[in-house]
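Sharing in case it's useful to others searching the archive later.

Someone asked me privately for the predicted structure of MarR family transcriptional regulator, so I'm posting the question and my answer publicly. Question first, with the sequence:
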Amino acid sequence: MNDINNEVKVIPYEPQYKEAFKALNEEWIKTFFVMEPGDYKLLDHPEEEILNKGGHIAFAMLNGCVVGTCALVKTEDQPLTFELSKMAVSPKAQGKKLGYLLGSALIEKAKELKAEKVFLVTNSILVPAIRLYEKLGFKHIPVVNAGYDRVDVQMELDLRTLH
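And my answer, the predicted structure tokens:
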């Protein structure tokens, strides 16, 4: 059996994948929740709201198709802090460790940029996602300024302890 990592590539944002960024996220959000104004802001305007503000977006490619995505949204300059946001993997590509690959790639990017912290917000019903974030090293912290009605879990990764 082929090693899946030979087929999967993580690449940075390219404008032709803008629609995939929205479609992949809309698919999972609408499965469990409802789209909120904060979702539309980021998903409709990824260049303006994420990239131009110092953030990054990664895509997982499988056999030339976008099957996953995740964003690193800059939330603070001092100390440099990012939110790991909008992680989505197509149902047809789940179970291939794409979330882990995307999360790892963006954590590495945050380290390169000398960020102190990466945080994320999620919901307790998304157990596989929470397990993934724990595997990536995130720790549970109290929820503050969630920005979305669906949020009841907040996690943080202190990059200063990883240098």
